[in-house]
Amino acid sequence: MTTVAPEREREQKAWYWYDWANSAFVTTTAAVLFSPYLTSVAEKAACGRATDEDAGYKCTTDLHVLGIGVSAGSLVFYVVTISTILSAFVLPVVGAVADRSGNKPKLLGGFAWAGSAMAMLMFLVAGSNWQLGAVLLLLATLFLGASLVVYDSLLVDIADPDDRDRVSSRGWALGYLGGGLLLALNFVLLTVLSDHTELAVRISLLSAGVWWAVFTVIPVRGIRARPPVNPDAEPGGLVQASFGQLWHTLKDLRNYPVTLTFLVAYLFYNDGIQTVIYAASVYGEKQLGFEKSTVLLAFLVVQFVGIAGALGFGRLARRRGAYRVILTGLFIWLLVVVAGWLTPDENLPLFLLLAVAIGVVLGGTQALSRSFYSQLIPRGREAEYFSLYQACERGTSWVGTLIFGLVHQWTDSYRPALLALVVLFVLGIGLLLRVDPRRGIQEAGNPLPTVV
């Protein structure tokens, strides 16, 4: 068991709370309620009614965005795709600024509170006003990504190499607990206000933004500011120098081929994971025919099983190494996607069984990917390297969402769209098998942990 100094342990506990804070938005808003809600709002705008479930009626009218026809059912996935394309330009600059900043916790708070404000404003999305919902989702996703760049980079400051799998896994576990508790409260709200579902959803969206904002105070106040570690001496002011540092890092990345290979592997397999998370609520409601409350119940199962999954994967990594455990988790993800494709309509037991399987592997694969990547990056450039990592992290995948949206638009069905995600997991596993963990850690100039 690793001995942790009291001051560092206090910082680690404060750090965990940002997983608790942002998971409210990730779970209640991004994963469960807002995607199907915004889809219904878009369908109402396109078809003149909230749903297309009336007997004998199938709406095929598209929304028109800049003169282009867009399927209402694909809108959310295109918005996430656009946000990720933007993040490819924005987040690396955020990372460069963070690495040169002497107060990362304050920077974390700024991005988090801006994102939570966008989340709270989602309460105003009603009727057929899909445009407001699309803009708020875009901005909230960008601010979330920016805050996570800073947050993930702090892991290197507060935990030694042998301790990062444990710390990262505990953060994810607390995130699942926090997200699950708020989701449970919103489940009760949706049940009580079953005759006013739209209002209940809007209140739930507001609660997620408030939760995110309030609990962000703990890590901002509990983690001490540290001076930059060996920042590149780029000329100009902060932003100009940050662009220079970014360009230098992108050129320098070729000196770390194992890191680059892992990053590309993560791009693919995490795109698959993120798209499953984004698509699950829409798939459950629109394809399998479950009520909103049933889908919410399934996500509650994911949240609370995910606590045990994240902690269990963390313990397993101490014995087997994070790399091997991540690979095992990805093979389970492949089985989950295929099983989801085969699940019959309105088959609740199978749907809940899928939720259990997702909960087991979701937090574990993501928490260990974060801690494993932290071993592969050079000291002093954590935020900038994590900005590249974060571009394919929670809520910012684009390959998978684009595939899902296009396949749905072409086939008018979510089943083939879900099955198409198998390609992303296969590519991610294939690339991950080419990663040599020991070589990658040594190339980055970091000490080898006890178990690699």
From TrEMBL:
Sequence intervals crossing the membrane: 75-95, 107-126, 132-151, 172-193, 199-218, 260-283, 295-314, 321-342, 348-368, 388-407, 413-433
Protein topology in the membrane: Multi-pass membrane protein
Domain Major facilitator superfamily (MFS) profile, residue spans: 258-452
Localization: Cell membrane
Presence of the UniProt keyword Signal in the record: no
UniProt-listed Pfam families: ATG22 (PF11700)
Keywords on record: Membrane, Transmembrane, Transmembrane helix, Transport
Alphabetized SUPFAM superfamilies for the sequence: MFS general substrate transporter (SSF103473)
Protein name: MFS transporter
Organism: Nocardioides aquiterrae
Lineage: Bacteria, Bacillati, Actinomycetota, Actinomycetes, Propionibacteriales
